[in-house]
Amino acid sequence: MTPGGLRLDPAATALLVVDVQTGMVESGPWEIDRVLGNIGALIDTCREVGVEVVFVQHDGAPGELEEPGSPGWEIHRSVAPKRGERVVRKNYNSAFRHTDLRAHLDGRGIGTLIIVGIQTEYCVDTTVRVAFEFGYRVLVPEFTNTTLDNGEVSAATVHHLVNGRIFSGRFAETPSVASVQAALDPGGAV
Predict the structure, then answer these.
(1) What is the DSSP secondary structure assignment for residue 119, as one 8-state letter?
(2) For the domain 10-184, what is the CATH superfamily, name and number?
(3) Which one of 123, 130, 162, 177 is the catalytic residue?
C-alpha cells in the first residue's frame, strides 16, 4: 500500500484526458503549464504500467473554438495520443452522453477512472459526476484540471471550489499526482 493508503489496480483503471485541445490550451486557462505538466506525468506513468489512456475530444459547432477539423479542435501536442490510443468524440459536457465510452470501459472491466482536463466546471465536472453516478471510483488528482475566469468568478476560485468542496469527499477522491503514480506503480519504476 502506498503512503496515505491509496490502492489502485492498473488493470481495472483508466485515465480520461478530457478536452485538452489546442484552442482551449491556447486560450490561456489558469495554471495551464502546471496542469499540462501533471497531466503529461500521469499519461507517462499510465503508459508505462499498462493503464489505458482515453482521450476525450469535444466537437464544437461551426465557427467555435473546437470546430472539428480546425486547429483548435486538435488534441494539444503536449498530451497527444499515440497510435492506437482511444479517442472518444463528444458533443455534450459529459464524455458519456451519446458516446460508447461506458460500454468500452465496462467491456474492459474498468472500475476506477482518473479524470483530468479542461474545463473544471463544465466538461470535467459533468464527466466526474456522471462517472460517479455510473458507479465508477473516480479520482481527480490535484492540479490536473483547469478553467478560465467565469464572469466575475476567477478561474482559481472555480478550481478550488469545484475540486476542494464539490469533488473531494463527494464525487471523487482528490489525491496528489505523486500518490496516484505511486499507487499505480508500487514497485517504484516510475
Answers:
(1) -
(2) Isochorismatase-like (3.40.50.850)
(3) 123
